[in-house]
Amino acid sequence: ALADYYQSHGIKVGILSRGYGAKSAVYPRRVNGDDNAAEVGDEPRLLAIRSQCDVVIDPNRARGAAYLTEELQCELIICDDGLQHYALHRDIELVVMDDRKVGSGYL
């Protein structure tokens, strides 16, 4: 929904993921909907299919973000599970959660 909103307002959005479980030979790697999920991860592949955004996987999030901005000219990067990666520059952090409690239930 966030990617769709910003794209509809003319902002080029990229999605960055670690690509958990991916077995790519090259990083950063741009993900396409027809990629093998074993190579790029199932979630990044699904994001590429559904979002119509540039999706990049890279265990080194800062390098992946640089690829999105410098090579693919993305203006906004949405990180899949990226809050703990302090090497990433941020202008804003947004956490989306469902109604399940986290930790001790007091957060």
Automatic annotation (TrEMBL):
Membrane-spanning intervals of the chain: none
Broad EC category: transferase
Highest taxon above the source species: Bacteria
GO biological process: lipid A biosynthetic process; lipopolysaccharide core region biosynthetic process
Keyword Transferase listed: yes
Cellular compartments per GO CC: plasma membrane
Enzyme Commission number(s): 2.7.1.130
Pathway: Glycolipid biosynthesis; lipid IV(A) biosynthesis; lipid IV(A) from (3R)-3-hydroxytetradecanoyl-[acyl-carrier-protein] and UDP-N-acetyl-alpha-D-glucosamine: step 6/6
Gene Ontology molecular function terms on file: ATP binding; lipid-A 4'-kinase activity
Function recorded in the entry: Transfers the gamma-phosphate of ATP to the 4'-position of a tetraacyldisaccharide 1-phosphate intermediate (termed DS-1-P) to form tetraacyldisaccharide 1,4'-bis-phosphate (lipid IVA).
Protein name: Tetraacyldisaccharide 4'-kinase
